[in-house]
Amino acid sequence: MPVTFFTPEHDALRASVRRFAEDELAPHADEWEEDFPDWVFKRAGELGFLGLTYPVEYGGQGADYFSTIVFAEEIGRCNNGGVALGLAVQSDMATTPINKFGTHEQREKYLAPCIAGDKIACLGISEPNAGSDVMNIETTATWDGGEWVINGRKIFITNGWRAHVMTLVAKTKRDGQPAGHSLFLIDTDTPGYTKTRKLDKVGMRSSDTAEIVFEDCRVPADALLGTEGEGFKHIMWELQGERLIGALAATSGAARMLEMTIRYAKEREAFGRPIASFQAIRHKIAEMATLVTAIREFAHYTAYRWNSGEYVVREISMAKLISGEIGCQIADECLQIFGGAGYSSDNPIQRGWRDMRVNRIGGGTDEIMREIIGKMEGL
Amino acid sequence: MTDQVWFPDKFEPADVPYELFTEDHRALRKSVKAFVEKEMTPNVERWEQEEDFPRELFTRLGELGFLGMKFPESHGGSGPDYVAEAVIIEELANSGSGGVVADIGAHKDLACLYLYNFGDDKQRERWLDPAIRGEILGCFAVTEPGAGSDVAGIQTRAAKDGDSYVLNGSKIFITNGAWCDFAIVAAKTDPAAGSSGISLFVVDAETPGFTRHRMKMLGWRTSHTGELVFDDCRVSADCLLGGQAGQGFYQIMQNFQWERLAMALGQSQGAVRTYEMAKKYSLERKAFGREIGHFQVWRHRFADMATKIEMTRALTYHALRLFVHGVPCVAEVSMAKYLSSETAFKTADEAVQVHGGYGYMMEFSAQRAWRDARLGPIGGGTTEIMKDIIGKTLGL
Known about the structure:
The structure holds two protein chains of two kinds.
Chain A: H1 8-25, H2 39-46, H3 65-75, H4 81-93, H5 96-101, H6 104-116, E1 121-124, E2 140-144, E3 147-158, E4 165-174, E5 177-187, E6 193-198, E7 209-220, E8 224-225, H7 231-267, E9 269-270, E10 273-274, H8 279-307, H9 313-338, H10 340-343, H11 348-356, H12 366-376
Parallel strand pairs in A: 1-4, 2-4
Antiparallel strand pairs in A: 2-3, 3-7, 4-5, 5-8, 6-7, 9-10
Chain B: H1 23-50, H2 56-63, H3 82-93, H4 98-118, H5 121-132, E1 138-141, E2 157-161, E3 164-174, E4 182-188, E5 198-204, E6 210-214, E7 226-236, H6 248-282, E8 286-287, E9 290-291, H7 296-324, H8 330-355, H9 366-373, H10 383-393
Helix pairs in contact in B: 1-3, 3-6, 4-5, 4-6, 6-7, 6-8, 7-8, 8-9, 8-10
């Protein structure tokens, strides 16, 4: 049988994620501008959306990677980027290392409740002085009397204000000697773990973003996730998946805005006719439709290869870069076509415009992507 | 133009296989690549200087079977296999001569395709079979001084006179036209009937009343692009393509899809070639003691180029996938044609820039890539026409 990209099962999943996003979430999009309730995680868990690719043993669906694509593409229909982001961090960023590198006990303790939506997860990479250059993070985990003692600060942590568990990257030290980077699973109620600030952002406002301080935070030996000293490699792998999901999310966000814009342009009249009938608007929309299709096809192609087991860092970096860049261009053109209506706070376009901007920063900036691509091109 | 609706939530159809290329296609790619590297690339500089290339290239392509991918064995082809044709197009683009490739494309992707799709058995036997062998060269002539993409507006007239038709009018920008052996010509058989009054004729080059001359162009200088003039040019009714008058407009609209997709494939690969050439130069040329490609600004600009090229190819392959599986794809083909032209030209402009002063000199091929790529947003329907079509598929 020739391999198709999506199957009828994916189409069914698409319909069910779309129903969830449009019927259960979108009606609250404005009300949740500054915050969204925890039950969203629980409900997404009940529907099986938080563990699509995870093993059935831990409550996952055991489905293929294309299911994740469908989820990333459809959840944006909730019209609130922060909600989609919070769910994506839970389902495809903070938990992927637990599934990939965790022991059976760790997966039972953390992965299973995260899949069910009973526990909320966050991912601790960025610090005040180190973001994309993970190598230079300053948070340390020092081996002391059979425990790890963690000290340092993490910033821009999505889900960080409400999370029950953090997947943390720290520099390990043994006997005063550096022992490479390692991953840890930290219960957020551990003494020494403090949420110091909930950050105020220009977009993605409904998503809680926190600053976390570790002060002599002691965790047991089994908090170590994966292989000691391999944390850098582990997190680089995680980042590839995160960037791919980011690319898909930006792409579907742009498609969603374009869809709203096309509808609006056909209804809104100026000089006695729908603005869509003006050639300048028609061409702008044609350009956007072309670019949306192109970034989607590129993200799909990249996901197809990632799913086949290829470590396609070059293509993932490209997809992340171009979808964020084009996503922002499209958001801006859509806002332009909406005119004054688009600039008003009760219009989802202005929120989409603000939310979209994070795609050029989060998960590695445009500039970092160009560095990675340029280096892989031998430059 | 089409009842197909593109919408932002149109995803990969669940019944279309994702992989395009098979082992056979990979083997074909190797052999075309070897041919291009051995028999084309080493001659390209000379051909460009002479603004000409030998007709024997067509017979070589015919001998190797490279002109017959879209046609069945009964006509001497090896298809129909449009994915194999895509391989041929991509590999020929690597030759680096837009003009040579354009002439070959006009022959096999226009003239031959029209004969195969719409010709009757006698017409196919008379013109298509030798054309697939590369023995006679064809071109396709719609565009006129006063009408290009608005096909319905052409002025060339084919008046019925007994058992024959008499053609009067002129055609311009006809790729391969200046040295063709036959031309597929669009003319009005019923001027009052609008788009239903257009018919296609196969006209032998030596037919009295048919003259042509070559046109000078900004780029594609090896191409034998010409102006064709029909002055009381009398052809027999056997030359009416498909034997039925009034079908021309619909035949043209149908074949536009492959013509544009072929351009998108060639341009996407052309951009790759130009990019590689520019990158290679950036790693040889030094400024301030290091290779300019290693400066961060150029590293990032190359990253942007490579990214846009990959994105463009993903869109083009998407359109190809839909096309070969018979899914309506007017929007996607138009998108691919428009985006690939833009990407190829921007890449070529960056290639000129990275070459600095040398980029402006005729002795370096960057300027040629730039001149050749400028045709992309014009030929086969301008970018503006593509956007109009895409807009229409969105109901705008």
